[in-house]
């Protein structure tokens, strides 16, 4: 176990499912509230953490949207992103593909430009100072209308050079992927990669829609795809990576116990599954903590861990050359470890 923990810590890793607004730690929330003269409905950092008890996705989303309201200036978005990148640096996360929720900001009067320029400036500094490569994925909030999503895509056009893909998040049940079929078709025509949350709480048919109608390149969560033999077969055949989030699944009651988590089954079935932290500040752990918890609960082997870490690069939107370099680095590390 100790040896596996060390391996998880030492190997280079990629994170492919991370909402930057979900990395807002209570301490920074207080700092930003003070800086922006805002009142928080909490008296202390401890009180905030105590509020993070969720029975389902919507309980979390309500608190998550309230929390992000302290993000006002470009510097706020920079500070938020830089804190996350510092955690990545500590945990040897070498490549990140981060989500942001522009509508969570434009809806309350903060411009698209403010959010994206602050996030992007931090990502550039993270690359320069820590060598962390990155992609940026803008998510549409699925509880809002198709029209609102189109407006957001239009606003994004001015910043298209800073955006690599679009995603779909927020309240899943009742907001099927089909609602955004036309928006995703336009995003694809702009050359953007496509991902969507599906099968987190929603039924397997939402995963089917995400594949058939949205034509996603990667699936976020996908837990409930495991209920369908046909879907498992399709995901495997089309080499669709799954960005799975163990501690998030536990906190949002997608699983009752990590011992019941479908990750082992996903790997046994040969799916391209990856480990991610989703909203680490709200769910109690960054990438390494997700690996530790999953390894312990499912008694994962060294081979499982290496597969998951390699999958994080294979399933990324890096070029083939870049992926190969990271995979070679992992193999070199493993060979060195064996010979010492
Ligand atoms: N937004 C942030 N985290 C999310 C999650 N796990 N599911 C749906 N929307 C989200
Ligand atoms: Zn998510």
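Sequence proposed for the structure above (340 residues):
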């Amino acid at each position: 176990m100790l040896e596996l923990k060390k391996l998880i810590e030492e190997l280079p890793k990629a994170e492919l499912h991370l909402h930057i607004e979900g990395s807002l730690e209570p301490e920074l929330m207080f700092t930003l509230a003070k800086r922006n003269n805002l009142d928080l409905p909490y008296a202390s950092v401890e009180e905030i953490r105590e509020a993070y008890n969720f029975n389902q996705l919507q309980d979390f989303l309500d608190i998550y949207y309230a929390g992000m309201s302290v993000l006002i200036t470009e510097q706020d978005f920079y500070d938020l992103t830089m804190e996350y990148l510092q955690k990545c640096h500590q945990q040897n996360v070498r490549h990140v593909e981060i989500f942001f929720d522009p509508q969570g900001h434009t809806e309350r009067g903060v411009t698209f430009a403010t959010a994206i320029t602050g996030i992007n400036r931090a990502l550039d500094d993270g690359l320069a100072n820590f060598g962390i490569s990155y992609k940026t994925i803008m998510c549409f909030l699925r509880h809002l209308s198709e029209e609102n999503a189109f407006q957001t895509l239009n606003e994004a056009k001015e910043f298209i050079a800073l955006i690599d893909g679009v995603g779909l998040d927020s309240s899943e049940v009742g907001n099927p992927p089909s609602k955004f079929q036309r928006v995703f078709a336009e995003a694809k025509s702009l050359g953007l990669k496509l991902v969507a949350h599906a099968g987190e709480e929603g039924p397997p048919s939402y995963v089917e829609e995400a594949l058939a109608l949205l034509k996603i390149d990667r699936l976020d969560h996908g837990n409930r795809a495991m209920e369908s033999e046909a879907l498992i077969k399709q995901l495997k055949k089309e080499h669709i990576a799954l960005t799975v989030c163990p501690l998030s699944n536990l906190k949002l009651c997608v699983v009752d116990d990590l011992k019941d988590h479908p990750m082992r089954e996903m790997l046994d079935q040969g799916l391209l599954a990856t480990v991610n932290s989703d909203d680490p500040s709200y769910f109690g752990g960054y990438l390494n903590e997700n690996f530790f918890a999953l390894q312990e609960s499912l008694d994962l082997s060294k081979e499982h861990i290496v597969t998951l870490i390699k999958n994080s690069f294979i399933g990324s939107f890096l070029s083939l050359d870049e992926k190969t370099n990271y995979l070679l680095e992992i193999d070199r590390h493993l060979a060195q470890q064996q010979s010492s």
